[in-house]
Amino acid sequence: MVRNDKSGMFEEARPRLLGLAYRILGSRADAEDAVQDTFLKWQAADLSAIETPSAWLTTACTRRCLDLLKAAHRKRVDYVGAWLPEPIHTASDENVEEKLALTSSLTTAFLLMLERLTPKERAAYLLHEIFGQSYDTIAEALDMQEAAARKLVSRAKSNIGVAQTRHTTPRERQDALLTAFHKAIHGGDLAGLSALLSADVKLTADGGGKAATVLATLSGKETVMAFIAERLTEYWSHYRWETAQLNGGRGIVLRSEGGDDVAATVSFGYDDKGRVSDIFIVRNPDKLANLDETAVH
């Protein structure tokens, strides 16, 4: 009976743990590994000795994520080209206002901003600002005094510049962007897309050395539009396009012609005026393998 109770408690906590792990690690596969490792540790624990199961699970999962994050950073030393977080399908939610903080903390732009932080700063910030954990819970998870946890969160907030990375853009404007992008690739109508881009827009592509793509980030509207006009109109015209909810925003999934294999995803970042500040393209097949599974975070 105790085992069934424990399993039920864990399954109730699983979406929250997956959401935390994904935001710390930027990888769905690694996040699922971290949560599974947490489950195994939970199954072996003595429930009668655990005062607050949710805090225990948060601590165990956070510590496992930090271990995996250190290993991931070592691997990135040899990563070919730009690194982007693994894209995920996110379930649409009609209660947008209620889920605003969670949704905005899933965007590629926000996850990349977290890369500025040390592993412990990253965990502390997410636990407090996104998941609403108390400072004493954070201190327990990170094995430090509560005062140190407060300073860690404060330093992370200062370093991350949250106001610049968590802008939200109306769904209608996002859909207009997808239409303009499609017209630019398939119809040669570049003016409509250009009008939606900021002057200093950046285009970043992740092929991981396993798929052909531009290696360096492109900067400036003129440069980005030239790349789209001269390269993407040729390379992407034969792909099957699908609109999708990616990392909390509207994006594009490109599939091979006549098949279901995902060839690329495209997602966007926006500035405070609703203009496109970033275009993110993921081509690395390892990061696209599980894309069709909806993630609820």
From TrEMBL:
The residue ranges of the RNA polymerase sigma factor 70 region 4 type domain are 109-158
| Residue ranges of domain RNA polymerase sigma-70 region in the record | 9-74
Q: Which InterPro entries match?
A: ECF_Sigma-70_Domain (IPR052704), NTF2-like_dom_sf (IPR032710), RNA_pol_sigma-70_dom (IPR014284), RNA_pol_sigma70_r2 (IPR007627), RNA_pol_sigma70_r4_t2 (IPR013249), RNA_pol_sigma_r2 (IPR013325), RNA_pol_sigma_r3/r4-like (IPR013324), WH-like_DNA-bd_sf (IPR036388)
Gene3D superfamilies with a match to the protein in the record: 1.10.1740.10, 3.10.450.50, Winged helix-like DNA-binding domain superfamily/Winged helix DNA-binding domain
Instruction: Name the Pfam families on file.
Output: Sigma70_r2, Sigma70_r4_2
Q: Outline the subunit composition.
A: Interacts transiently with the RNA polymerase catalytic core formed by RpoA, RpoB, RpoC and RpoZ (2 alpha, 1 beta, 1 beta' and 1 omega subunit) to form the RNA polymerase holoenzyme that can initiate transcription.
- Protein name from the UniProt record: RNA polymerase sigma factor SigJ
Species assigned in the record: Sinorhizobium psoraleae
